[in-house]
Design goal:
With 436 residues, the protein is mostly helical. The protein is built from 17 helices and three strands. Strands 2-1-3 form a three-stranded antiparallel beta sheet. The protein is globular.
């Protein structure tokens, strides 16, 4: 059974709109913040690469090192969304709002408002950081530093993040996948060719040995295949439904409830990265004459990617966020209620609270293995390569998981048409009395 031409045309439109809106995102990423000397900025980062700057630059799609209007990226919105999701677990009023459609609109509105506040806070700190940058020869990156530059930068970066949020909503509405995920995906993908070109250039100049180059490539490709395998792995839970006859057809019987092995998804590493970057943001607000400045600088240096303290804290934060975020992603109480309303049950488990306890048990076991998997994927490549590449486990985890979801969405979009045709092909569903 072939897919109808109309469905293929709809898929082509979705693909075209996705690429068109992502092209707009990449064009906006080239627009610099007013008051910055691009030549001095490029000279500074050419002599000061690596560490936390490369990590932030990777997630922003190169906008950070260009100090473009999208330098903050979409991360402030993600951070605010996660904060409201966590608050919903501890504040009953927010949880009640999240269960209602009108309440969800209120939460989305509040999330946007707090995103603007967070963008202003981070934008002011980022402007203070860039004011301290000086290229070789003492040339300042900022042409006219001062309070006016900080205010203009704060407003510009907040506007850039809100534009990205609007663009992500349009991608979600007209494209193939969640717009926020695709924006992060596109930002990482565009940096991959330059990263590979840089490594081959270092190899040709003798700054990078052949063994190190092969190790970096082997780590990238092996991480890609491991993530591809685990992200599509599920734990099937048998579910038995009561049989019933509808239109001379028997429905029900044995089915499987799938639960992902990586139940928390890509959010634990992203949130852990944001929390580790928080001391650098806080240090930017402390003046150079402050007594705390030397201590904050030493903490910031020890939290560079590849350092021992960074790896330990990163691993602990990933495990904590995995256990905290997995129940938010997989609400076992709602699954239990859905099974009970559908006359479904897990063999050997009573419906209701016992089913919820059993699902919580399965979820905790999956989260244990999933958190270990995330730690190994995100920390091990950095240890092996010695932070010589920006494309470690976190970047590959985001790339593969988003790509897998896009393929699943395309398959679901096409299969929906096949199922619709199979129902309409029955004689009693044709003509004016068709039910579909």
């Amino acid at each position: 059974m072939s897919v109808t031409q109309g469905k293929l045309d709809d898929l082509k439109k979705k693909v075209f709109m996705t690429f068109a809106l992502l092209a707009v995102y990449r064009l906006a990423a080239q627009v610099p913040v007013p008051g910055v000397d691009p030549i001095a900025l490029k000279a500074y980062f050419s002599s000061n690469s690596g560490g936390l700057f490369d990590l932030i630059n990777t997630f922003s799609g190169g906008s950070f090192k260009r100090f473009s209007i999208l330098a903050l990226g979409i991360m402030p919105y993600i951070t605010t969304s996660i904060i409201f999701s966590l608050l919903g677990e501890v504040i009953p009023q927010i949880q009640e709002l999240s269960e209602d459609s009108d309440g969800q609109k209120k939460i989305q509105k509040l999330t946007r408002y707090f995103t603007v506040v967070l963008c202003c806070f981070q934008g002011y700190g980022l402007a203070s950081v860039f004011e301290s940058f000086q290229a070789s020869g003492g040339t300042s990156v900022v042409i006219n530093p001062g309070f006016l530059f900080k205010v203009i930068t704060m407003i510009t970066l907040a506007g850039g993040t809100m534009f990205l949020l609007w663009l992500g909503e349009r991608i979600t509405e007209f494209g193939l996948e969640n717009g926020v995920s695709l924006i992060i995906f596109a930002g990482i993908v565009v940096e991959l060719p330059s990263e590979l070109f840089q490594k081959f250039t270092l190899y040709q100049t003798g700054e990078l040995s052949g063994i190190n180059l092969i190790t970096i490539l082997a780590v990238i490709f092996s991480t890609f295949f491991v993530v591809s395998f685990v992200e599509r792995s599920v734990r099937g839970i048998p579910v038995q439904y009561a049989k019933k006859v509808v239109n001379n057809k028997v429905f029900g019987g044995s089915q499987t409830l799938p639960m992902r092995v990586d139940t928390a998804g890509v959010m634990p590493p992203i949130l852990a990265s944001s929390l580790i970057a928080a001391p650098a943001t806080f240090a930017s607000f402390v003046s150079a004459d402050s007594v705390l400045k030397p201590y904050l600088d030493s903490i910031q240096m020890s939290l560079f990617p590849g350092k021992l303290l960074f790896n330990i804290l990163f691993a602990l934060l990933i495990v904590y966020m995995a256990y905290f975020y997995a129940p938010i992603q997989t609400k076992t109480n709602k699954i239990s209620e859905m099974l009970q309303k559908s006359n479904g049950f897990i063999p050997g488990i009573r419906p209701g609270s016992k089913t919820k306890e059993y699902l919580d048990f399965i979820l905790n076991r999956l989260t244990f293995f999933g958190s270990i998997y995330l730690v190994v994927i995100c920390v091990t490549p950095t240890i092996i390569t010695g932070s010589q590449t920006r494309f470690g486990g976190t970047s590959m985890l985001i790339l593969v998981s988003v790509a897998v979801r896009v393929l699943i969405n395309i398959q679901s979009f096409l299969y929906s048409d096949l199922y619709e045709q199979s129902y309409k092909s029955k004689g009693k569903f044709k003509g004016s009395r068709k039910r579909f």
